[in-house]
Write a structure and sequence with these properties.
Layout (H helix, E strand, L loop, with lengths): L2 E5 L5 H12 L6 E2 L15 H14 L2 E6 L7 H12 L3 E6 L16 E2 L5 H9 L1
Parallel strand pairs: 1-2, 1-3, 3-4, 4-5
């Protein structure tokens, strides 16, 4: 059972919770390991160095990196940093737009990400498996 790091904007937490529910009913297809770091701390805050080290460790432990792209995800410095970290660590990157009209973070484009066609269990599962 492989671990999956999920990057998301704090406004999209309900979608993270849906992934957790799907994982719980999936007979071990993917183990979503959540360390909710959406604590309202600026990426430039005094705590950022420590938080980044914890998140980087979690990304290292996970062969797959899933980015949930919500309405404001492209504006998140944290998500951008997580994507850059996943790219640097050569992780298998999967992306899914919660809504097709959402803007993808610019740094996830052109990095070889697999794209789930929609925010459905089957589409995300297929993108992870490919």
């Amino acid at each position: 059972m492989a671990k999956l790091f999920v990057s998301y904007h704090h406004k999209d937490e309900s979608y993270k919770n849906l992934l957790k529910a799907w994982s719980a009913n999936d007979n071990g297809h993917f183990d979503i390991k959540f360390d909710d770091t959406s604590v309202g701390v600026s990426i430039n805050s005094e705590n950022a160095t420590y938080i980044k080290s914890v998140i980087k460790t979690k990304i290292k432990e996970s062969p797959d990196f899933l980015c949930l792209i919500g309405k404001d995800t492209h504006k998140s410095d944290w998500v951008a940093w997580e994507i850059d970290t996943a790219v640097d660590l050569k992780k298998n990157i999967i992306a899914v737009k919660i809504d097709n009209g959402n803007t993808a973070p610019s740094n996830i484009l052109g990095v070889g990400a697999s794209w789930a066609k929609s925010f459905t269990y089957d589409s995300i599962k297929k993108a992870i498996d490919d």
